[in-house]
Design brief:
6 copies of one chain form a homohexamer. By secondary structure, the first copy, chain A, is mainly alpha-helical. In chain A, about 65% of the residues lie in helices and about 0% in strands. Chain A contains 10 helices and no strands. Chain A is globular. The first copy, chain A, starts with about 25 loop residues before the first helix and ends with a helix.
């Protein structure tokens, strides 16, 4: 015999490995899902995974949207770059797929997205971006080693106190989200893969 | 010279290392702080750290309270045991102090609290609790290695699908919270240390 | 200021970080480059990197072509799956890009390629493929822990003695190639990124 | 069901996991145990664990007492700080409990004791103490990376040649003692937990 | 230029990196050194390193001699095999040199000594010896993961309770001794290298 | 019982763990083997392991001989020092034995060979050699962290662009060869052990 063909890695039949039925969603969450459908063409599977419990879904969505979309000294692309660099350390298939797409889309640069997935050190980055990602990755790998000199390196790269909070908060959030995805084996929507290539 | 005396590790002058002024808080958040003062005698410093931004504080509090206080197949003590075992891996001074106290208080067993801080494998644990903490710690250390057999081990120990979600969610949350605390050097309230010893 | 735009991650101006002029190539190597141009439309940059020394280029090409293209109990796709899973452990930007493309092309399954890059444990794999990649990744991460029971696991999954050699040889080769790419900062051809998405 | 209560983590019924009967102790060791009873109110369980063999007990006690109690350029508190920081790396329940108490008692600062257990980097330390603990922890985690520049860092912080010996010796000793405690599952005396809180 | 010749790695001019003068030795320690000279032809440098303080030298010698030479269910060779396997994990040049020689001498098998230095898993070992070294190496690398099942594995391989103590004690001791050697850069006597090859 | 004697670690009955019959060798490979017999007195077992396939043997030999024997700014001894330092990280019994002997022979310094096997940081090395081995070991342990500053450190130590290639290539090659040896459990020729001691 010469080899064996791997199965086609189809779009997921289920959004996660847990058998949890969809909850009755609140008006607010129904509207949120409708807005996703309208703007993206689909509801991201992470939201469907949380939809077994309306309160948990609402809490997750509120936190996520504040972190990734609210006004900040970090651009949305910068926040997505952090998301992917952190998810690369944690080797999270769901988040690398979904947020890798976001980096490609927001930057219009497919190669940048790939670099964040594979090894952010391979990218040509400004001092600002290198400092930002170095902090996020150290916070991911060895949080107990973060000290004042790490914060000073961010300030020296031009970041404000509030920017420091936001860098820490986005990196910390994806350390949660990566683990939630791994805990329940979340599967990304098929739409991400081919987008902005 | 024979040695040098270390400085007294006083109650913190500031709740974190970032210079971020307190925001104008919403009615809801003011009421939340008042309730903390009334029930605990203080506002936990993690909330004061988030209080530079009302929306971020509200999102954090909603997520935290749902995870740690809402009805679940896991008791509040079990959720706190996960919190401390995860924080021990990440060596988070803030969370070990605050949630170590919570384990001591909810269990009435100071030694159990110490064991969760130091090495949960030293405790005499039921199969349920050992499986729960083993999953939480593996999810913390090597999330990319979590597979279906890890979930099956939890089911075999008697946990429901929803319990699996909750174990994953609490462990994931403290991987965020530990890193947020490290990113900004949060300092725990002095009240925790001597409580329930 | 709100953020900063990252530089466009263009096609590389140079194939590597070392300033080594192109050697006079032998007839055989010239013919090999011509065949690449004809079949692929470009000469892979790894070959251009080696082209500063004809003997080194010839030795590398002979080894590579024997391993990846010669008859074997492993299909070409299986060999490429090993290449990418190993390169993912070593976070090698060059090899993940070039061989990730090869997995996509040989399988016709873009998602399979992504999974090999991100975390091969996320893929639905046959017992054969899981055993093959588990061995390759263990050999990469902790070669000193490989023992007879690891070889037995391959045999139990249906692999022959010669297959064991080939799995080991491909995994070992990419541990060399990943490090050569990192040592000199090899940059992949731009053609790979958008191909078979 | 909502949760399950963990068993009370009582004082240990046995001092270790090995079934080794108490040896006939020499006069000297009997006197030593009597002095412990008189001064502390109990014999530390580590000594009871060694008491299955009089010669081993005597050798351990002589080494321990010389290291921790004999005249040195390091104060007793400094030696205990090293003991706890090393035991924290090795997550040794016995030594963290017993020597964490010693730090609390010698310093009169319960918070300092907690910080040594959880993450010594969280403490406000003088340059002297930070250099001392950094050396001890590096020696614990990666002894093969200790080189002359590590010793020079201690000298630059004001330590003498003999102090260097003593720092190395205390750190090295607890790398032994932590492992002996783990090998036989030593259990600390109940008295430590609530002391100096 | 083609290369550069490395300096000859001569016998050490000093036994360690610390400048500590020899203490006045007690009668007992003088006799011990004389016995070393007589039996070995030299005083092992580890003893010369401790000789800056008679009490420390005496305590070290008493512990060492009890562990490695006193009656035990483990042969002297078995204890030396543990010494070298542990020292290999810690990459301790002094102990690998001195105790590698001891394994060669006690076994009359130079290859066995080399295997203990390089990777004990490469040796053909009985179940007894494999279990013994696996325990010693796990205790060295991850002491916090040692649990009752690890002790049970030793009992199942035929070891008594006292043997378990001795395996743990020898492994623990070399975790101290390796670190002491690294802390002060101890240099082995030249006699070891060529002996029993 | 007091202990058990380990089996004699004899010369290997087989050169590897795979049952692969010797191929019909080409004239060229037969001549190569004859030359080995004539110059060394034996054919290195690594070549016998590859001899199940003439093309693989030829490709391996061509690569090996170019790397280790062809003209280079690195002396043959320097290349062997890299080989051993890399093999020490990977704890490869075959390569440590064979190339440890090469370092002893080319340098005439048995101690240098031992130091490369045990911990190259213990050797008195020139700046050139320390920089060379530090790069090779970092490339082995964490190839994804190699960046331009690592290459600059080599240039600052006097290495040319071509030397950088050669250092990277030798280090990368032994990361392959170590893993091939581990994958199939290659066993070194008995002649190496006692040579140049």
């Amino acid at each position: 015999m010469v080899g064996e063909a791997p199965a086609k890695q189809d779009a997921p039949p289920a959004v996660m490995a847990l058998a949890l039925p969809r909850a009755e969603l609140s008006q607010e969450m129904q509207a949120y899902f409708a807005k996703c459908e309208e703007k993206l063409g689909y509801v991201p599977n992470v939201l469907l995974a949380y939809a077994h419990d309306d309160a948990k879904l609402a809490a997750f969505a509120a936190l996520y949207n504040d972190l990734m979309l609210a006004p900040s000294g970090l651009s949305k692309l910068e926040r997505e770059m952090i998301a992917v660099a952190v998810s690369s350390v944690n080797r999270c298939y769901y988040c690398l797929t979904a947020h890798g797409q976001a980096v490609r889309q927001l930057s219009g640069d497919p190669v940048l997205g790939e670099m964040m997935v594979m090894n952010y050190r391979a990218a040509k980055l400004s001092r600002r971006h290198r400092a930002m990602l170095d902090f996020a990755v150290k916070l991911t790998e060895t949080p107990h080693l973060i000290e004042e000199e790490d914060r000073q390196a961010l300030r020296a790269a031009g970041f404000s106190e509030r920017d420091l909070w936001d860098i820490g908060a986005v990196a910390a959030f994806f350390n949660m989200s990566n683990r939630m995805a791994s805990a329940v084996d979340m599967r990304p929507n098929a739409e991400y893969h081919g987008s902005v290539r």
